[in-house]
Amino acid sequence: MSNYQHGAQNISQHRETYGRILDITVWSGGLIGVSILFFSMVFAAKIAWFPALIISFVTAILTGMVLKIGSAWYATIVGLAILTLIMGMGISAIAGLG
Hints:
By secondary structure, this protein is an all-alpha fold. It has one domain (about 10-95). The protein contains 3 helices and no strands. Helix 1 packs antiparallel against helix 2 (about 50-65) and helix 2 (about 50-65) runs antiparallel to helix 3 (about 70-95). The protein is rod-shaped and about 85 Å long. It starts with 11 loop residues before the first helix and ends with a helix.
């Protein structure tokens, strides 16, 4: 017969893999959700890009707090907000030249 004992298998690697997949899913869902929120406010609701950026930023911070994502989430959101701010100001300056 077999030496198999029910419930004796080491599943630590499986748990780690499952945890990583959940982390990727939470991050992806959060970033996609905040992006959809921002773009729908700018293009569908005709809200100016700066108020839409502030609302999206606050929503992303609250999402990170509720889901307890971690400090890397906040750093990513701040970096994306700064990048969006620089690009928005640059595009607004170029559009104002004409």
